[in-house]
């Protein structure tokens, strides 16, 4: 069965520290997609990144970077030089392939990040 | 501006009443989704729709109903049969391409309180 594990429930850092949020997934699909979302205190989820299983290149977007490793089934997210505005709950998700190409997302339980000034 | 709107932001109801949550999108997306989020928990899928006039149950559909009469709209009714309706409800939409899973875009959510 597909599963996403975000082992870190809460992380607290001081501004300007680097922080890595872990995401480990399980799937028997050979083709799958992984996602990260940010949920600030306002509640609306914000899409951050999508990665397919055939692309293992790491990605960097400003202070954000993602490390995808199929060998360890992990898709970790690093924030460099964290800022107070990064405080949010971060969710990792995995696409689930069903018959008829309908794909649902399997969600982790989220990691709550607090960046303190 | 393209996006997803959900109204109202806060909703209060008495136990035993049905309530309908609105979700509208102008992103021209085929697929739409309803999720429920409880404190400290991840998102749980209630219903999803890949195309107009078609929808499927998600993981926790009992006590909920939906309709998809228009591409832009996917309202969710929380019926009196839902045992614990108090929660944060999120609507999302995405494009639909065969064999590809695209990112979902979310609305601001509706916080429903039933007493």
Termini separation of chain B comes to 36 Å
Biggest beta sheet attributes of chain A:
6 strands, mixed
Mean pLDDT of chain B: 92
* Uncertain ranges of chain B: none
Gyration radius of chain A (Cα, Å) is: 14 Å
Q: Can you write the helix and strand succession of chain A as a string?
A: EEEEEEEEEEEE
Q: Give the assembly state of these chains.
A: heterodimer
Tally the beta strands of chain B.
11
Query: Beta-strand level of the residues of chain A, as a percent range?
Result: over 45%
What characteristic shape of chain A results from the CA principal axes? globular
> Approximately what portion of the residues of chain B adopt beta-strand conformation?
over 45%
| Major beta-sheet overview of chain B | 7 strands, mixed
What is the global morphology of chain B? globular
Decide which structural class fits the backbone of chain A: mainly beta
Secondary-structure element series of chain B = EEEEEEEEEEE
The number of helical elements of chain A comes to 0
> Which two chains share the most extensive interface?
A-B, 24 and 26 residues
Structural class of chain B: mainly beta
Helical content class of chain A? under 10%
Number of strands of chain A: 12
User: What is the average of the pLDDT values of chain A?
Assistant: 91
Can you give a write-up of this model?
The complex is a heterodimer of chains A (117) and B (115). With 117 residues, chain A is mostly beta strands. Chain A is built from no helices and 12 strands. In chain A, the strands form 3 sheets. In chain A, strands 2, 5, 6, 10, 11 and 12 form a 6-stranded mixed sheet that branches. The termini of chain A are far apart. The model of chain A has no long low-confidence stretch (mean pLDDT 91). Chain B contains no helices and 11 strands. The N and C termini of chain B lie far apart (36 Å). Chain B has 115 residues and is mostly beta strands.
